[in-house]
């Protein structure tokens, strides 16, 4: 048994790779995480897309998640930032989150992928997380409104990106110093919790006067 294999077994990690073919799978919990986060993002994208079409048909339409002056999906949908690529942003989510669900289901069925595939998924989820953070900044400090469905998509994308990265570090698809690798595998829950917690604090402080009124 190789040193890497001993390390994987001793740390309680599942051996999901096939060293002879270069194919790497994923554990069932990881596969379910992709399915669940993909489904959450797809649901958010679907609801926002439907409401966007209704708003285009009837400019006076008020989305169901427009609850008050701050939590107002309608303001977000009417903004220029809501169509960065020339079409409504959630349509991009319909495609990408569906792909994530498909990957998760394939892993549950025993699928294995090459290193470049996992790196591509990591790159795609990194782009998604970065795009969500840009949208969050625009939402809080330029549009001055918050969309609950958008927030769900942000959380789903952040969790997805963090755990795709953990998966790739675990299987040494992304190589990092062993100390950092060990810390990340042991405290894998900390990055998404801290990340989402910081966003929560930004939302809380941005409209502090409104929340306490």
Describe this structure in words.
The protein is mainly alpha-helical. It has one domain (3-212): de novo design (two linked rop proteins), CATH 1.20.1440.130. It has nine helices and two strands; from the N terminus they run H-E-E-H-H-H-H-H-H-H-H. It has helices at 3-10, 28-57, 73-78, 89-108, 115-143, 148-170, 178-186, 190-206, 208-212, and strands at 17-18, 23-24. A two-stranded antiparallel ribbon has the order 1-2. 31% of the residues are buried.
Give me the count of strands.
2
CATH class membership: Mainly Alpha
Cα-to-Cα separation, first versus last residue: 64 Å
Strand-residue fraction? under 5%
What is the radius of gyration computed over CA atoms, rounded to a whole number of angstroms? Answer: 20 Å
Low-confidence stretches: 1-15
Give average pLDDT, whole number: 90
Q: Supply the number of helical segments.
A: 9
CATH topology: de novo design (two linked rop proteins)
């Amino acid at each position: 048994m190789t040193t890497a294999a001993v390390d994987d077994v001793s740390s309680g990690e599942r051996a999901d790779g096939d060293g002879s073919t270069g194919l790497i799978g994923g554990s069932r919990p990881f596969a379910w995480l992709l399915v669940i986060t993909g489904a959450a993002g797809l649901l958010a994208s679907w609801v926002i897309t439907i409401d966007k079409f209704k708003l285009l048909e009837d400019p006076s339409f008020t989305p169901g998640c427009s609850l008050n002056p701050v939590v107002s999906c309608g303001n977000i949908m009417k903004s220029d930032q809501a169509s960065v690529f020339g079409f409504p942003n959630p349509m991009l989510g319909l495609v990408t989150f569906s792909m994530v669900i498909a990957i998760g289901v394939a892993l549950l069925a025993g699928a294995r992928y090459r290193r470049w595939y996992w790196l591509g998924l990591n790159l795609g989820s990194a782009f998604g997380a970065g795009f969500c953070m840009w949208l969050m900044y625009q939402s809080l400090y330029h549009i001055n409104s918050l969309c609950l469905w958008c927030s769900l998509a942000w959380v789903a994308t952040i969790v997805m990106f963090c755990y795709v990265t953990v998966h790739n570090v675990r299987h040494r698809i992304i190589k990092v110093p062993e100390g950092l690798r060990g810390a990340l595998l042991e405290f894998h829950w900390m990055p998404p919790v801290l990340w989402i917690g910081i966003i929560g604090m930004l939302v809380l402080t941005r409209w502090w006067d409104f929340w306490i009124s």
